[in-house]
Amino acid sequence: MELLFFVFALAIFLGFELIAKVPSQLHTPLMSGSNAISGITIVGALLAVQADGETMTQVLGFFAVIFATINVFGGYAVTDRMLSMFKKKDTGGAK
Amino acid sequence: MSVISPYAYIAASILFCVGLKMLSRADTARRGNQISAIGMLIAVLATLIVGGMNYVWIIAGVVVGAGIGSVAARKIEMTGMPEMVALFNGFGGIASLLVGWAEYHKVVSMEAGAFDMLTIVAIYLAILIGGLTFTGSLIAWGKLSEKLPGKPYLFAGQQIVNGILVLAVVVGGVMLCMNPTADAAYRILGVAIALSLVFGVMSVIPIGGADMPVVIALLNSYSGLAACAAGFVIENNVLIVSGSLVGASGLILTKIMCKAMNRSLANVLFSGFGSGTASGGGGGGDVDGEAKPISAEDAFVILEAARSVAFVPGYGMAVAQAQHAVVELGNLLEANGCEVRYAVHPVAGRMPGHMNVLLAEANAPYEQLVEMDDINPIMSTVDVSVVIGANDVVNPAARENEGSPIYGMPIINVDEAGTCIVLKRSMKPGFAGIENPLFFKDNTRMLFGDAKASVSSLVAEFKEL
To answer: How many domains, in total, are found in chain A?
Structure first.
């Protein structure tokens, strides 16, 4: 149990360190990319849909799966689409 | 099979860290996003092999979610990106709420089910933060897509209502955690869910459209923290790690946005800035002189003679969808032997980096994009600055007028250029209701009309050369 807090504290610290200096043109992709990562709650959603669980738990889990999947797929796809435009511009400038 | 799951979760966590790191550098950003997506895939597969799940429901849920998410991501216009990000954020939040609720239901419906103190507190937090993120994001989505009025919504006694809400949330939390399996506890949980949803609405309605970059960044952080709380609920490290990473990155962005507006987070969240009340009207100070309108032909003559031009885009460029026309004009100017730059203020637009996304979509050359701190020192060497739908971020009152509500906010000093051409629909002041003395300066010319139409007519003039 204490281990969870230990992990939490270190991960928060790590998060600040990882993204401390991000150039402003990447603010939007960073935001939508990290937004996609927050869809990790899909793991909890999947675990809630237990085969031998109560119907109510399964229904809650089912909707959680839907919303989390929208978050994951939408977030990664939109970020990739945005960054592909950034990419195109890079090579365009190099010509 | 599930013996490998913990190790797969570690691998996923590492991939998220590497992905985020790469996402913060221009040349590696796209790979970074893909690496983080692989991490997500690994985490999901590692969960599925644990077994014992109702796979029919899961497949149905994933198919529906993936369909909606992919279609929405492909269809959305780049100008609609802020509201899309807000909406996805909200979905992450509601998912965490449902995970917390499902876990609660699972335990109370077991015979002799009992909670650890930590688990019930985490459930309560996952529900609270998740619900707040959900409705807060929906309101932000409404404001950004202009389905709701962008003005701050304030009413008498708002602080009192919010105070009561906070109190109710705290009391409910204590009651639930003291006795989580009592008969009344489920009702308290229901009330808590409702309160969290109301709380999200109440938090975002008093915040004006131009403060949305801060709100979106903050909601992004919340969605991470909600996932983190869900991680404590199911005692899963990968949720805690990735939720914390997102929480931290959202906070960093929030801080950057607040700094770019020279305001504290508390001021953004609670002041209803720009509601057009006392602060807006008197703050503008005395404005001398008269705005000098200019025709597109005259603007063309000025630009044609310019050796160096800086475009300063704002939300108006996004509204008018003028980014393609602007970059076309920029390219024509460059072909005309002019040095072209696009100067982007950190809070221009409605989300962090909004203008950069639009300019990237229009294929603006990367090296021509400059940040505020790089353009200001050389602004006096720029012949013409062209303000396209920006207002507060170029308002010299922030520099000169101590009585102005935006005094102290860093701005792009467009008035220091030889000539400043302002593209604007009308003389209406910006969102904050603050007069902009820039429009009345001797070297400022106003080109009235729709930004896209104005820029297009300039482009047409150049093509006639």
So the answer is: 1
Q: Is the pTM of this model over 0.90?
A: no
Tell me the nearest-neighbour CA distance from B69 into chain A, angstroms.
Answer: 4
| Owning domain of residue B28 | 1-75
C-alpha distance across the termini of chain B, in Å: 72
Does residue A65 sit within a domain?
Answer: yes
Given B270, B296, B321, which residue is the final one in a domain? B270
Q: Name the residue facing B241 among A7, A21, A68 (closest C-beta).
A: A7
Q: Give per-residue pLDDT as tens, B186-217.
A: 999 999 999 999 999 998 988 887 788 889 99
Among B residues 186-225, those touching chain A with beta carbons less than 8 Å apart: 216-217, 220, 223-224
Say if the Cβ atoms of A27 and B240 lie within 8 Å: no
pLDDT in tens, B285-327: 445 667 888 888 889 999 989 999 999 999 889 888 899 999 9
> Is residue A43 in some structural domain?
yes
Domains held by chain B: number: 3
Could you report the per-residue pLDDT of B8-17, keeping only the tens digit for each? 999 999 999 9
Write the ipTM.
0.92
A89 and B70 within 8 Å at the Cβ level: the answer is: no
Q: Are residues B195 and B308 in the same domain?
A: no
In a domain, A14, yes or no: no
Query: Of B108, B236, B47, B122, whose CA–CA distance to A49 is shortest?
Result: B47
Distance from CA of A60 to the nearest CA of B (A): 6
Are β-strands B384-388 and B419-424 bridged in parallel, bridged antiparallel, or unpaired?
A: parallel
B248 and B112 in a common domain:
yes
pLDDT above 60: residue B96: yes
Angle ∠(B243,B245,B246) on CA atoms, nearest 5: 65
How far, in Å, CA of B443 to CA of B292, rounded?
Answer: 9
- Per-residue tokens: A26: 């990447």
Residue B444 reports pLDDT greater than 70: yes
